Amino acid sequence: MTDQWVSFSRRGAAELVHLKGEIDLANANDIGRAIVARTTGADAVLIDLTAVSFLDSAGVRLLDFIVGDLDDRRKPVRLVVGERGAARMTLQLCSFRDDLLATDLDRAAAELDR
Amino acid sequence: MSESGGPDVTQELRLPWDDDPEDLYEHAPCGYLTTLPDGTIVRVNETFLTWTGYARTDLIGHKRFRDLLTPGDQIYHETHYAPLLTMQGEVHEIALDVVRADRSRVPTLVNSVLERSATGTPRIIRTMVFNATERRGYERELLSARRAAESSEQRVRVLQQIVADLAAAPTEAEVAEAVIRAPEPAFQATSSSIFLVDPERDELIAVSSTDPTTGNWDDMPRSSTRAVAEVARRGDLHVIATVAEAEAHFPDLAESMRRSERKTVVLLPLTTGPADDHGAASVLGVLAFSFREERVLTDGELRVIRLLGQQAGQALDRARLYDEGRRREDRSSFLARTTRALDEQHRLLQRARRLVERVVPEIADWALVRLQVGPAGLVEYHGGPAPDPELLDARVAEAVETCAPVYADDGDGLGCTVLPLTVRGRVIGTLALRMAPDRRGAGADRLFLVDLADRAALALENARLYEQERAIARTLQRSLLAADVPGADSRFALETHYQAAAQDLEVGGDWYDAFLITANKLAVVVGDVVGRGIDAATTMGQLRSAIRALATAENGPARLLEGLDRFCERVESARMATVVYAEIDLVGNELAYATAGHLPLLLHEPAGSPQYLMRARSAPLGSRAGDRRRVEDRIRLTGGSRLLLYTDGLIERRGRGLDRGFEILAREFSRMRDAPLKGLTAGLADILVGRDHSDDVCMLCVSLGTDERLERSIGADPVQISLLRADMRGWMAGHGVDPDCLNAVLLACSEAVANAIEHGYQDDPFGMVDVSATISADAVEIRVSDHGTWRGPGADLARGRGLQLIYESMDDVSFDQDQGTTVTMRRHRNAP
């Protein structure tokens, strides 16, 4: 059901979550459930938002929840966003921590593996 | 006689024997006895003494007559003879056995007369004894002859019944049941068993027994050394009269005779063919019956037994032919039904599914079809349990490699027959079947399975080809439909929709297209080619290209249709296609259109209700009977007009008149006037045809002239927000709004609408949110209004974040809560 917005793969030790398209109030809950089902128990998580064309506060809430959960378990997480674009704008407006955001997937993966 | 202690009556006796010559008395041809009333013998003649071997002195005065009788006859003497004699004075022809001195017996007939004195007291008994040895023998013969006749008659009755049963038994099993019931009533056998020859497997099958605990109850090869197999080979009746006899010839039989306490066994081959020539007769089975006592069978019984073997053999033969005929009929009927059932399904997967579901349970208890199609192949199975996958894989590989069936074998641990599915000498897959052992192996069954595989292969190959063609047609159609329609032009916006028929029909010939003829002239077209499938898809592609080639700045719609008529002269499949074609002058806002046998355009201008454009109509392309004078019409459009082109699938619906379809379309199109353009065509299709539609639906909607102002009204449904965003994104892009501003406005607008839905309409799913947007050279202004009751913006932390985002992304934000809530937001545009 959420396949059009979210897909998964592995990157080293990290569970890699690919998001794409518009994430808003209408689909954030379903996407959140799909992600949590995969990241519960993951040792590290990379969330690739570079293909996200819109992100609203419901999407922010979803990311906040996942990051919070991983922080509680002391597992590293990175959100990969483009240099520009809707996702970066929304996350910056919500003042997400700089250490969470990355612009380069490979570098972020390397950091997590360290 | 006084010394005997009895009353002394002799002195009073007149001596009667003095009257008869001594010799006659002594040597008469019968014995004479004279006894006293108590039976004491007082006189006996020589003949009696000779017959019995007694000396005169043994008897006279020492024995009573009854002392000479057998114990049984002594009782008879006391209960019948003596009372009768006393009452009647005489008895005649009483049969009594006299015991000789050597204890052997002489059967006799006895007459006695009681003489009384003048006072009536019994005085003497005279007894005449006839030797009845020969007469008794004769009687016995008579008796045994009668018994023989009776038992023969019973045997005949039993056999008559059996023969009648045999004649009525249509199957081998029923023949066997009838035969096995014969030996007990007919010959007083203790139990019987029947074995039938299975010529395909060269075995004798133990079919039935009245007492299966006797004997070795296993199937055996015909070459077995066991007695039953031996008799089946020899084809002649065997009577094993004693265990010792069995010991000498058939050790296995002797062993089972001892175990089941049988003394005599009869092994009767059931034969068909000439009765008197055992070599020419063929053995179809063996009937074995046995006796707990040693049993001697008479010649008559043996004759009847042989007859039973022949009758049963013939009945088996007939039943086999009958069985075979019926099996053949069943098989051909099964093949016909299966072929028909497969034909009902066009799609490959469904056809493969149908195949395994037909085969199980009718001929197999598990079936699996594998087809070599696509990268992963296709596998369908039914029934269970599944066999060992590794053994099966090996057998499948063998069948594919040898291109020949691999039949199940009892000892193979798999029990599966694998048939290659072959078409034009190429193996396209395999069909694996697991059948009960009695349903496999026979030659006829093998032919049947090969036939089944051939038919299945052909049906599956046809489905595969159909599937392939369908995929090609669909790919072709999709590629044509998906070709880029012009966008990001502030002067117009396009929305299209294609929906294939719900039923598994082939691809239809509906299509839409939109392209810019010149920088300022937009062409839109919707058409419908006759037919379905790859031909329709190809023709559609050709017509689409022809239209693009014929559309020039000078031609106009009527000339274009004339050009298409000429095109149909060369491309026959395009004939009778219908087309609606329109050109929109984006500078002068003028619409020029023409329809060739197609449904009319639907136009909705900002003011007023929608109207169907009924002018400029002419016959379908290349029509011979229709009016082919191509005409066109021109009308001026106002900014904000929407124009809908569609195919008949949208309004034609079973049980609904065409007029009604037009009416509903116009009403719904009007109702959705303020809905975002994105999703509008899909929404119309949902309302008008729903999910259960039997025809393809194709639509193109063009919205003209982007205003300085955008007005939208959406339902309180989160899904609607993304549709609104799409409209707004296109609208802002059309006005050249820079990406940062555009993204910020979209975010703020989405959050404001989400707030209205989540807070304003928390309790009202039917609420509407109105959005209006204006654009100027230096700013974008958005107003979002609802008519709901807010619970207060701070009630929810998350929505608090939404508000925060609105404040962060916009330059000015103000709330007005008067009969609902209105948020007005403004964002400055960056210099281009």
Automatic annotation (TrEMBL), chain A:
Organism superkingdom: Bacteria
Domain STAS: 16-114
UniProt xrefs under Pfam families: STAS
InterPro entries reported for this sequence: STAS_dom, STAS_dom_sf
Protein's name in the database: Anti-sigma factor antagonist
Species of origin: Actinoplanes flavus
